[in-house]
Amino acid sequence: MPEPRPTASVARSTAVAVATGLNYGYFGAAMAGAQLFLTPQLRLDTTEQGSLFAVPIVGMILGTLLAGRLVAVLGRKRTLLGMAVGAAVLAAASPLVAHLLWLNATRWLLGLAMGVTSVVVPIFIAESAPTATRGRIAVMHQVATVAGIVGAFLTAYLLAESGQWRIMLGLSAVLSVLVVVLLVPAPETPHGLAVRRDRTAPPAGAVGQPGALRELFGPRYRSVTLFVIVLGALVQLTGISAVGNFSPRIFEGMGYRGSFSLLVLPALVQLAGLVAALCSAVAVDRLGRRATLLTGTAVMAVGHGLLVAAFALESVDGWGTGLGFAGLLLFTMGFNAGLGALVWVYASEGYSDRLRGAGASALLVPNLTANFLLAQFFLGALTGLGGVTTFATLLSITVLTWVFLFLFAPETKDRDLAEIHAYWQNGRRWPDEVMSGSVTR
Prior knowledge:
Elements: H1 6-42, H2 46-74, H3 76-93, H4 100-128, H5 134-158, H6 165-170, H7 172-183, H8 190-197, H9 210-216, H10 222-237, H11 240-245, H12 247-253, H13 259-287, H14 289-312, H15 319-337, H16 339-349, H17 356-384, H18 387-408, H19 417-425, H20 431-436
């Protein structure tokens, strides 16, 4: 199938990637600021505070399981459009009632919409963007996600004096409307049209179907499936979502006080992550995926090391606060330059058109399961076990992630989708290596 016209494809894919990233990032971070004002008003204990972040993740898990079937029936564009409309309505309704049950119910449904979107956006990018810019546009999605997080923290700070947590949460509806506006004129992807025309093919990779599961773990796709499952879990177990969700509490634990410290400093950390993601967007198609991933993950490990030192030195002449800020800065920058920007590329590139939705779900289900565990229990661990033990554990997992990437992550720079499929199906060897008998990553 010929590549779409580069100019139109790049503009369309970038616009959708940026808009969905902004929406996803803002939704994920809005509660981090709103939680500071919700907690005393609703008298929430540690477990209930964790549920505000954990419940949407349960919805996201279900969304990833449904995404493949929705894509098969509706196509890529209409699935994204339907989720954006639903998210706009739910985001507007969620803060209307100040009750934990209502908040969790609406956020569960919002999580479902975000889960479907998280599966479909990488597919949309992979199928509509030219090969030469696919990696850059995927990174732009992460850039926009971080921009959404920064916007959420700054909004919380601007509204801190009045404590208007309802506005903090409700503004996510505006970003969902932006996604709708950009998607309405966009066409379906060429691959999506081809799959929908093929009425003899089974539904396109709904991961919950036995047939899709058999294919994912069958001889052709077992290698890439195991890779994305392990990678999906490790990405979250490094602690990235916990750091984002509870960064005001982490700063508080290191001795910071006041709205500026608890809301603007997290925004500055995320802004540094945004700069790192932008640098990655420029460099990734030159340096390659593998080098970018390994460098970013190494920086994450250094950041965790500084956080361990920060909590150990918290009461020693202010050293803890300075080291802690530097640690959060480095950890977030490393993630956004590496794993955050590129983790979805492997799942979207490694499968055929029909199984791409199931492949993305295979990454997201373990990713979100790990995310749920951290969302529900991180705050309890931080307050009960202390920062040293908590971040030492996350440091160990980050080092393990680096080793996993070093051993198993291939370099897919300048490779088309057919070559990438052949790599995984040929025992992790590129077609030209099979011909020559050489082996490289």
